[in-house]
Write the structure tokens for this entry.
Amino acid sequence: MLIKVSSAAHSGLESLGIDVEINVANRGLPGFDIVGLPAQSVDESKERVRTAISNSHVEFPQKKITVNLAPADVPKEGSFYDLPIAVGILGSVLHFEIPKKSLFFGELSFDGSLPLFAKEAGFEKLYVPAESANEAAIVQGIKVYPIENLEEMIAILLRKLHLEPVAYSEGVPSFTGAAAAEFDMAEILGQEMAKRAMEIAAAGGHNILLTGSPGAGKTMLARALPGVLPLLSEEESLEVSKVYSIAGYIPPGGSLIRVRPFRSPHHTISQIGLCGGGTKPQPGEITLAHRGVLFLDEFNEFPRTVLEALRQPVEDGRITISRSRGRVTYPSRFMLVASANPCPCGFLNHPKKACECTVREIHKYHKRVSGPILDRIDLHVDTPDVDVQELAQDASAKRFLESSLVIQQRVARARKLQQERFREETIHTNTEMKNAHIKKYCVLSPEAEGILLRAAQGFQLSARSYYKVIKIARTIADLEGVDHMRPEHIAEALQYRPKVYGSA
């Protein structure tokens, strides 16, 4: 007797349809085999299923049982198939009909991809363990049924028990990977140009590099950034929650992640730690920072090979990890915030302290970060040392400094404009614009275009840098709430060209 039960498999953040085919034959020696490229954890399902059925007061069939997980070329791991295998075997013993358009999954973390897959594939019902039902109910348009135990599943399939589908409710706060803002922008004295650059970066999702002497306030600026970023949208919240579910950071009953992740790995991190990998590819820091911030302090101290691995993720917003058993793609649309000293000792061009580095040492220090990586950073900002007298004046006038909340309101308005602008596109922010988007959405006045062309010739801007200036100017215009980009928007955007490191 052949019974087919629908289930699913994970591939990165996506879900793939799996047909669990159970054949219970009277001929042959009694046995229980699972085929279809199962991992050891799947093969161990045999004992779990056998025990669960026996504990449900149903005699396990002493027949030749063969379970095929199709398609065979998709690797299967985990205990996700316990429920569909058990349902198939019970169907052969108790002779009930498998509900149509129903998907069975034996284990579910906080991963919205499974209910999304079930809905898109045309399934109407999803049966999952009770502790996972709330998480599965995130996606609207599919009925999720919580199963307490296999005995309850049997009663439902025999139509002896009627179960109501669950509705999603906000659970306990989840581990978010997000750091609450450690500083308010009003607490950072001086550095007005850097604070303006951080506002532009937050509004458009632009990458930014802060360069300055030790103690100038680079780290404070970065740590204050979460306070000016808007909350995640519903779509972004589901994306980020899926990432943290796969990484195992969300507790049972946890709620959707609502705040943007803020990740700050140490400069000794490995390439696998940053980009992801392993025998079973796991997401790295760049994926955990998806839709949030990746802060790389002491940028030049990171190994060059680690930084070079950022090229494709920064450009494309995703990372593909290939292994012998297949490959997975994880999202990595993050905002890169980097900070660096101008030289090894940190006091190059300092107004009061002499630099002790040789020209050779400075050159070697700068060469640790390649030109292509720097070219992918939108805003390059110097954070000069703030004079003590200026600090005293700012401290006395601190009540007049803008708070993070005030800046966040402007950033949120700019983000809303971008959301409306790109509602029919696959992008969310200005930094994600490709050349076609720029031509469509970035209208320059004749005066602004003239300034940009002269600057491109005078500063020898690369094609990437040319379009980068336009994207920054678009964000500046959004912060002002205007449609057309004026000369002053282009002029301000040009101020954020690289100064210390190389050329544009």
The first strand starts at residue 2 and ends at 11.
